[in-house]
Amino acid sequence: MSLLGIGSVAFDTITSAYGTAERVLGGSCTYFSLAASYFTQVRIVAVVGDDFTAREEEVFRRHNIDIRGIQRAPGKTFFWAGEYGANVNEAQTRATELNVFENFAPVIPREYQDSEFLFLGNIQPTLQADVRRQLGGVRLVGGDTMNYWINNTPSELAETLKVMDVLLINDAETKSLAHDTNLPRAAQKVLALGPKVLVVKHGEYGATVFFGDHAFGIGHHPFRAPTLPIEEVRDPTGAGDAFAGGFMGYIARQGELNREVFKRAMFYGGVMGSFAVERFGTERLQGLRHEQIEERFQLFRELTHLG
Amino acid sequence: MSLLGIGSVAFDTITSAYGTAERVLGGSCTYFSLAASYFTQVRIVAVVGDDFTAREEEVFRRHNIDIRGIQRAPGKTFFWAGEYGANVNEAQTRATELNVFENFAPVIPREYQDSEFLFLGNIQPTLQADVRRQLGGVRLVGGDTMNYWINNTPSELAETLKVMDVLLINDAETKSLAHDTNLPRAAQKVLALGPKVLVVKHGEYGATVFFGDHAFGIGHHPFRAPTLPIEEVRDPTGAGDAFAGGFMGYIARQGELNREVFKRAMFYGGVMGSFAVERFGTERLQGLRHEQIEERFQLFRELTHLG
């Protein structure tokens, strides 16, 4: 079933111990939609500038991603430059040029009105809520946020959290949002703010999903999915967005919302995140085969399941 | 089958957000042996002072732990005081009084010579190797170490690692020992130093076991066990030792060394570690019932297994 993603499309210059990739296609919406495209039909809303050419369009088209919702504005596309040192979990930002992204006002095209699943990528919370209002009969709303919005727009974020069914954030964001340093306690506090389901991403340790009381009638026991111990993390950029893409894409493909679907979605999220980091930018996410995804899913299962 | 543990017996004064416990029974060997006692017959070698009374002896006896190997020396028992702040994963040491532990020279009593499983708790590496030499036909040697020995006695530790079959350490210790910040790569480097099996403990994220080539003929795919998200971590002291106790105790009970045994041992390690932190000191480990251990094992399984 159709999945709509909003967020950023960008050009990134990324440096890690493995080298530098100059002005490669990036942005949360790009990673998200590429990862999700292996599971379901994806459509996106984003904004790009004059430097976004037929070559970039082609990347989305090859994955059957509907880009009619991409707005074109005069100026340059969002640009980010970052560098990863010994600690690959933390990027040093070298440049952030918002460009056309600064005045992004997402508009949902009429052709997207039948979208059943929605993912609100990490943008200003009021814009996220506004997108939600533009869509009527959506079945599940997933969303992301970051410490910048948690710290600087808490009341706007509080409103937006009420319209999110599933919030996907990391450990630090969960603790910061809940003002609590104990993760499971912080998770319960975040669930009390609105989301029915909270996915907390632990980087190299996988992710845990916490369910609110009566969320989809599936009980409140948490579930933890692993990630693969990867010896060569070339570029961690977009791992969280790829996780969200695998997670939401798998759910959208199933249509049904039950505990087993959420559990497997956690595995597929981890699978897509683990692929993303193996190459610079979106390179790895652009060239996957379905057998490779299933093979890694099985690896994740062997990594965690008793006989 | 019989499991021999060596390490420290101590009195600890522990402060956390939940209060203070004054001079409670602690030490790596105490946590280890109590946790292991739920699985197999345990015997220990340690040193205590005049302040170790019949009351402390009774704790071990109630768990059928053989303490004939406990040496008594004039003076006081090892004393440690520590405090946990907002970050429960890191203790601030307030006092360390080695006392009789300073001159600990472990001697294996004749009655222990038939021990089939050995755990070398975290003491000076040369002493660990010396204990290993005192035991002939042992089937599996597990061991622990810490950053202090990694940094200050690297060559002694290098010798000791050659006689360890299973090394159980945490993420930071693994990276420090391997001089590599990437965990799976660091794990491979540590395995090259001697141990056939490396268990890396990730604190609240569980633990991963890495197998060396041809280790017990069980293949080299890693396996990851969870821990329970615990809302009230009263006192994390001894969690790693309790993990080692559950891990080694389960293996000793099985007798057989295959991949499934190691996998389940990882789960039982996590189970015992998760109990340890729920109360101050060894309180929780002193009063468990087997049904509670099995119940938590099932919780761990539900937390991680797809349907």
User: Main beta sheet of chain A: strand number and arrangement?
Assistant: 9 strands, mixed
Mean pLDDT of chain A: 95
The succession of helices and strands of chain A, N to C, reads: EEEHEHEEEEHEHHEHHEEEHHHH
What are the low-pLDDT stretches of chain A, counting only 5+ consecutive residues below 50? none
Quaternary status: homodimer
CATH superfamily of chain A: Ribokinase
CATH topology of chain A: the name is: UDP-N-acetylmuramoyl-L-alanine:D-glutamate ligase
Q: Biggest interface, which chains?
A: A-B, 39 and 40 residues
Number of domains of chain A: 1
N-to-C terminal Cα separation of chain A, in Å? Answer: 34 Å
Topology:
Two copies of one chain form a homodimer.
Chain A: E1 3-6, E2 10-16, E3 19-26, H1 28-36, E4 42-48, H2 54-62, E5 66-72, E6 78-84, E7 91-97, E8 117-120, H3 125-134, E9 140-143, H4 147-152, H5 154-161, E10 166-170, H6 171-178, H7 183-191, E11 197-201, E12 207-211, E13 223-225, H8 239-254, H9 259-276, H10 283-286, H11 290-304
Parallel strand pairs in A: 1-4, 1-8, 2-6, 4-5, 8-9, 9-10, 10-11
Antiparallel strand pairs in A: 2-3, 6-7, 11-12, 12-13
Helix pairs in contact in A: 1-8, 3-5, 6-7, 8-9, 9-11
